[in-house]
TrEMBL record:
Residues annotated to bind ATP: D55, E114, G115, A116, G117, V174, Q175, P203, Y204, L205
Name of the protein in its database record: ATP-dependent dethiobiotin synthetase BioD
EC id: 6.3.3.3
Organism: Methylomonas lenta
Record field: catalytic activity: (7R,8S)-7,8-diammoniononanoate + CO2 + ATP = (4R,5S)-dethiobiotin + ADP + phosphate + 3 H(+)
SUPFAM superfamilies: P-loop containing nucleoside triphosphate hydrolases
Stored PANTHER family: DETHIOBIOTIN SYNTHETASE (PTHR43210)
Assembly and interaction partners: Homodimer.
Length: 219
């Protein structure tokens, strides 16, 4: 089992955080000590003396050990826009993120790093998700939001991960709609055209139930 994974998505709002926490639960059920990290987050609210992102707070809540918020999310920006805009004059440092990731690795059996947006989305003015995943040298798990257009997004994302010479450990399908037309046919086509295992299908839920969702993944 890898000591960590990089979680990326076919787009923004495709269920990366739910998928990350689901994977954390599945690994914890195997007896592993697991933590999640969201290095860069935009769209934060002022909470208990600092800018905090709801997704990152969930990762903090579901970690196997108690962690300070900044250990999970070193770069938190207020504006709900692309991080390279939200960061303003703040330089998002790869060295800072890598150092914090290495600390988390010493505290856990497996560290899941959740990117922001899609594979080539920027994390700052001089860093994107692909560059971060390459620097961390983590196997990648691709979260595919199942909706119209997802086949193209999934295949392009997988192609880009492969071109970066990183291992795509698998992909997760997230059912974003209660009743997507031709869901099974779309799922089957992606399975046939992506040379990475389908790790699970997360069914549509109004509210998260991570124990239930963990029953639908294999890692």
């Amino acid at each position: 089992m890898a000591s960590g994974f990089f979680i990326t998505g076919t787009d923004t709002n495709v269920g990366k955080t739910w998928a990350t926490i689901t994977l954390m639960h599945a690994l914890q059920q195997q007896g592993q000590k697991v933590v999640g990290m969201k290095p860069v987050a935009a769209g934060c609210e002022w909470h208990q003396g600092g800018w905090k992102n709801q997704d990152a707070m969930w990762l903090q809540q579901y970690a196997s050990i108690a962690l300070d918020y900044k250990q999970i999310n070193p770069y938190a920006f207020e504006q709900a826009v692309s991080p390279h805009i939200a960061c303003g004059e703040t330089a998002v440092s790869l060295a800072v993120i890598r150092k914090q990731f290495q600390k988390l690795q010493t505290l856990s059996d497996c560290t899941l790093v959740e990117g922001a947006g899609g594979w080539l989305s920027p994390l700052g003015q001089a860093l994107d998700n692909a560059e971060l995943a390459t620097a961390l040298q983590l196997p990648v798990i691709l979260v595919v939001g199942m909706r119209l257009g997802c086949i193209n997004h999934a295949r392009l994302s997988y192609q880009a991960i492969s071109q970066a010479k990183l291992d795509c450990a698998g992909w997760l399908a997230v059912q974003l709609e209660a009743d997507m037309p031709a869901f099974a046919a779309n799922l089957s086509y992606i399975q046939d055209t992506i040379q990475a295992p389908l790790l699970g299908v997360l069914p549509y839920l109004e509210n998260p139930d991570f124990d239930f969702l963990a029953e639908h993944v294999k890692i």
